[in-house]
Each structure stands twice: as C-alpha cells, then as structure tokens.
Amino acid sequence: MSSALSGLRVIDISGTVATSYCAKLFTDYGAEVINLEPGEGFQTRRLHPFLEHTSEADKSAMHAYLSTNKLSINREQLSHSKLTSLIKSADLILDDGTETELTSYSRNVRASISWYGRTGEYADFTGSDAQCFALNGMLRSIGRVEGPPLIPTGYQAQIVGGLSAFIGAMVHVLAAELGNRQELVELETSIFEACLCFTDVGAVSSHNTNIEVPRLGINRFPPTYPLGIFPCRDGWIGLTVLTPSQWDAFCKILEIDEYADVELFQTAVGRLQSIDILEPIIMEKLLEHSAEELFYRGQENAVPLARVPTMEELFGVDQFVHRHAFAQASLPDNRKLQVPTVPFRLYATPPSFGGTVASLGAHTGEFANV
Predict the structure, then answer these.
(1) For residue 22, which of 30, 10, 38 has the smallest C-alpha distance?
(2) Dihedral (CA of 11, 330, 42, 129) sign
(3) DSSP structure string for 153-183
(4) Are 27 and 159 part of one and the same domain?
(5) Which of 11, 235, 311, 362 is the most exposed place for a label (fewest CB within 10 A)?
(6) What is the pLDDT of residues 4-63, one digit of tens each?
(7) pTM above threshold 0.90
(8) Based on the domain organization, do 191 and 52 belong to the same domain?
C-alpha cells in the first residue's frame, strides 16, 4: 500500500522536541524528512533517558523515538550552494522561530514552533514544559490540598505544540499539492497556546462565574466524580463516571446497587459533594477486582474504564499489542528499542511502525554530491 505523504520533503532545521515530533508525524506517513543538523547534532540527541554502552550522539532514547526513518545531514559538511538548494526544495521547513540565514531560503511553507510565539508579552521568555502547564492553570488543581501542586515530567507540552503545528502545516502543504497556493506561507505555533486546550473549559467557566475553585486533592477534579486513577486488586484503573446511566452501570459492576438510585448521586456534582461517603466504599470494592476484569466489564456496560499499566506491563497489554501501539526502533549499533507509534491511523494508506534511526550525518554524502 502507498504512503499518504510520499513525495513530500520536510526539513527540520532546529531539532527541538516540538519540531521533531511534528516532523515525525510527516515521516510516519511517508514523507521524506531530513534532520539538517549542526556539527554537534540536534539538541534532542542530548535528552534523557539515555541508553547505555552507545556513542554520545546516539545515546538518547528520546531522540531515537522522534527520529525513526528520518535522514540525518551534517549541514556543516554541505557547501553553501548545496545547502541553499536543499532548503529551497522543501515543501515544508520546520524551525523554532529563530530567524537565521537558513530560514530565509524557505520557498513553500515555513512552520515555526516556539514556546510563546514570536510576538506578544511572553515572546522573550525562556520556556519549559512545566512553565507552560503552570501558566495555563493546569497545575493549580493537581496534587494534595496542602500542596505543592504536582508537575508533570517529560516533554508533553512540546509534543502538543508539535501536533498543533502538524495540523496547520498539513493544510498548507496540501493546498500547494492541490494547486491552491503558490506563495510562501509562514505559520507560527505557540507551544503555550497549544496547551491551553487542557484548560479552555475551566477558563471560560472562571470568566463566567468568577468562582475560584480550590484544589480538592488527589483524584478530585470538579465537577466530575469519580474521575482519576485508582488502585485495584492487581494494577490500576482509570475511572470517568459522568452520566446517570454510567453511574448505574458502575454501581452494578462493583455490586453497590444500593447507591445507584440515590437522587443526590445522579449527578457528578452530587457525588463529588458526597465524596467522604462514596470514596471509601468505591476504593474498597475496587480492591476486590483486577484492572483487566474491570476494563472489560466497563466495555460491556458502556462505562469508560481504562487499564493503567505499569511500565513493566506496558508492552504486554492486549489492546496495545493488537493496535501496534509500540514498535521497534533500530539504533545505529543494531540494537532495538520499543517506541510508541503514531497516535492516529489511516487504513488505506497506513503509517510506518518503527524503523531505523540514523547516526549523526549518516546521509550527508548522498546530498553533498547531488
């Protein structure tokens, strides 16, 4: 089967997590993606977690995840004319918003992904994932009442920014393919603004009601209850019980039918107000069941329950295996690494699952002699 985006050329000149993830989505659907790296390599090559017993440039597992099936060129080994010609040939250039000589050569679509955009009062801020989550208000409601708030680790904010940029860039790349656009288009994505999707409802509610909702504690997210991740007999289960029918089915699953028809418990807000009564009962009953059992019974009864596997269990979860949620990345030293696959699927033109990770500059010679 053909790839959806074969024939497109995408060049990443900045190599941040955000630009790399955006480029990864193009790669997974068949585009030729080039990492145009400086002599020391992209910054993603220096991100944790690190692999043992491998070269300095290839030790980052995060870089491996972001870079399967991409080409790597050491731009310092290309002549100025070759470099200029290569960038002009790209359907899409990805960068971090910094104006450089390289960005000036873009001729089709240029997508800049920066922490706070190139304009506005935050434009000069030095950003981070935690900072974006703090500024969008998400951290305020997460954690114990006595504080401090819990801060997610990792690179989630940058991944969301890369996904947002992919959507916008794809529109304009396809417009050019269809003959609806000829001129250069410059797109700007703010990682911070992309992450406002996590709290947009709360912001509107706060603006309309002028009510400041206090932090209620672990697994307490107003106005829904029960909502969160709870321990089971073996493992963990994610609960989202919202509608009266879901509450009724959930009570039947846990064999607490006597609470199903209580008028106060017919709304999520009512259950939240009665959390001191309900939570000890729910947690006690959950410990009588396995996470897998609850997951399938939830499916049978139209209640959104989700298994939350530990890291040790992750690769063996049956639905993950069936959906090819993970695949192998082949490292330059021929070792294999399990990495997540693309989160959305086209079936007539499916994405690639896993692939090879290029060492720094592995494809420079192919382009230096063109």
Answers:
(1) 10
(2) positive
(3) -SSHHHHHHHHHHHHHHHHHHHHHHTTS--S
(4) yes
(5) 311
(6) 999 999 999 999 999 999 999 999 999 999 999 999 999 999 999 999 888 888 999 999
(7) yes
(8) yes
Task: Read off φ and ψ for residue 207, nearest 5 degrees.
Answer: -65, -40
- Provide the 8-state DSSP code for 285: H
**Residue 294 shares a structural domain with residue 350:** no
Of 308, 338, 358, the last residue of a domain is: 308
Tally of domains within the chain: 2
**Structure-block tokens of residue 355:** 């692939």
Q: Are residues 173 and 66 in the same domain?
A: yes
Whether pLDDT at 310 is above 70: yes
pLDDT band at 152 (very low <50, low <70, confident <90, very high): confident
User: Does the residue 218 lie in any domain?
Assistant: no
Domain boundary among 266, 281, 308: 308
- CA atoms of 215 and 144, how far apart (whole Å): 7
Domain containing 187 — which CATH number? 3.40.50.10540
The position carrying tokens 């020391």 is 40
| Together in a domain, 31 and 162 | yes
Position 17 scores a pLDDT of 98
CA neighbor of 103 nearest in space, from 113, 93, 92 = 93
> Where does the chain have alpha helices with state H?
17-28, 61-67, 80-88, 129-135, 156-177, 191-194, 200-209, 244-254, 268-273, 275-286, 291-300, 318-322, 364-368
Structural domain of 302:
227-231+236-308
